[in-house]
Write a structure and sequence with these properties.
With about 450 residues, this protein is α+β, with helices and mostly antiparallel strands. Helix content is about 25%, strand content about 25%. Strands 1-6-7-8-3-15 form a six-stranded mixed beta sheet, covered by helices on one side. It has a six-stranded mixed beta sheet with strand order 10-17-16-14-11-12. Strand 7 and strand 8 form a beta hairpin. The longest helix is centred in the last third of the chain and has 16 residues. The N terminus is likely disordered. This is Omega-hydroxypalmitate O-feruloyl transferase. It comes from Salix viminalis. Belongs to the plant acyltransferase family.
């Protein structure tokens, strides 16, 4: 059997960079002053998402040229993406967050490093030090926090990184991929690849709201939306956490799929089987001393609702159009049950999200002002395709999120070492003893 997983190799602990220039950039044409409605899904993700996109050196596009092209393209697409040059505000009349499209500007930073790309470690393994390749431009917040900041950092080898910080309220992963496609197209002198659909009222609650399903995956809070909050599932643990990344190869995933088949013709998705495997390991590593077989573990994971609504949302919808699916099982089932049953539970969680279920969840948010809630969340960057974006200087060598140590979130991201990106890296942060147990179970359930 091929190598089951690889732990995190040594990584550069510090990455020193020098900021050459930081400024605000503005739409290159006048845009309409307006307020943009934010859906109940947008409302609960008022925090920044940071990604880094690494590029090999290209003699036709030295980093200085890339920085100029990115800046010019950014100014151009701030016209169709006018909300990125706006500011978040709380509307006291409606009690909701919205975006004031006031043209206050987005951020742009040019930086450099004396390191080479080879010196900063294996790019496939995201490194907390990569946070220095992203900037939130807090120094320019006198008119409010910019909703999008792009940083271009050059390396001594001629390679470079494009780091992007955006408010999650502006994009989900799918619409951010569209934004990158458009940025790349305009940087190459082409028209927008996919003009964005900015009508977020397509996901407005019904009037009156009608909650037609129970929503155990959602938790009511006693605080108004629009205040600076981290939902319970995103709480950063105060305890010391070990940080490891496990690699599942395409062969590992194929083996798991074979074990999960209930018939020779059964079709099983890679996401569902990987999620079931992680769920079992994470839940059973929770109780170190005495395992309560009747304890219920609930896993959360995102489902794209664009094609599930009636009528479907435009694929170009620029806001957040994902809902949190869930699956629950007792620890006894997770320990003793066949993986086929766990995969079925994960699949059913996604199937549950029909048009009516999605509308019910949105309406629940209108009434209850709450957040997704479960034991932990699988956040998948595996199939988003950020490293497939075709810039004038080529596709990224690798794209990854800036990682953070939170034991209630497990990240999946692509493994470019594997053929056709079919492998997956699993990022886990847990207290030391729980990590040891998770690791043992991770190997054990792959080998049986």
């Amino acid at each position: 059997m091929e190598n089951q997983c690889q732990e995190t190799p040594p990584v550069l602990q510090e990455l020193e960079i020098t900021i050459q220039k930081s400024s605000l950039v503005f739409p290159d044409k006048e845009t309409e002053r307006k307020s943009i409605f934010l859906s109940n899904i947008d409302q609960v993700v008022n925090f920044n998402v940071e990604t880094v996109h690494f590029f090999a050196s290209n003699e036709d596009f030295p980093p200085q040229t890339v920085a100029e092209k990115v800046k010019n393209a950014f100014e151009k697409i701030l016209v169709p993406y006018d909300f990125l040059a706006g500011r978040m505000k709380f509307n006291t009349n409606t009690g909701r967050l919205e975006i004031d499209c006031n043209g206050a500007g987005a951020g742009f930073v040019v930086a450099s490093s004396e390191s080479t790309l080879d010196e900063i470690g294996d790019l496939v393994y995201p490194n907390p030090a990569f946070a220095n390749l992203v900037n939130s431009l807090q120094s320019l917040e006198k008119d409010g926090k910019p909703l999008c900041v792009i940083q271009v950092t050059s390396f001594k080898c001629g390679g470079f990184a494009i780091g992007i910080s955006t408010s999650h309220a502006t994009f989900d992963g799918i619409s951010f991929k569209t934004f990158l496609d458009n940025l790349a197209a305009v940087a190459g002198g082409k028209p927008l690849a996919v003009p964005p659909c900015n009508d977020r009222e397509l996901l407005a609650a019904r009037s009156p709201p009608r909650v037609t399903f129970p929503h155990p995956e959602l938790l009511k809070l006693q605080t108004h939306l629009g205040q600076e909050l981290n939902p319970p599932v995103f709480d950063a643990a105060q305890e010391a956490l070990d940080f490891k990344i496990f690699r599942l190869t395409s062969g590992n995933i194929s083996d798991l799929k074979e074990k999960a088949k209930t018939s020779p013709s059964a079709r099983i998705s890679g996401f569902n089987v990987v999620t079931a495997h992680i769920w079992r390991c994470k839940a059973l590593s929770h109780d170190l001393e005495v395992q309560d077989p009747d304890r219920v573990s609930t896993i959360l994971y995102a489902v794209n609702i664009r094609p599930r609504l009636i009528p479907p949302l435009p694929v170009s919808y620029a806001g957040n159009a994902v809902l949190t699916a869930y699956a629950s099982a007792r620890c006894r089932e997770l320990r003793e049950g066949p993986i086929s049953k766990l995969v079925e539970m994960v699949a059913e969680g996604a199937k549950r999200i029909t048009d009516e279920y999605a509308r019910s969840a949105i309406d629940w948010g209108e009434i209850n002002k709450g957040f997704p809630h479960g034991e932990f969340l699988i956040s998948s960057w595996w199939k988003l395709g950020f490293d497939e974006v075709e810039y004038p200087w080529g596709c990224p060598r690798y794209s990854c999120p800036v990682v953070y140590h939170r034991k209630d979130i497990i990240l999946l991201f692509p493994d470019v070492i594997d053929d056709k990106n079919s492998g997956v890296n699993v990022l886990v942060a847990l207290p030391k003893k729980q990590m040891e147990k998770f690791e043992t179970l991770f190997h054990e359930y792959l080998s049986v």
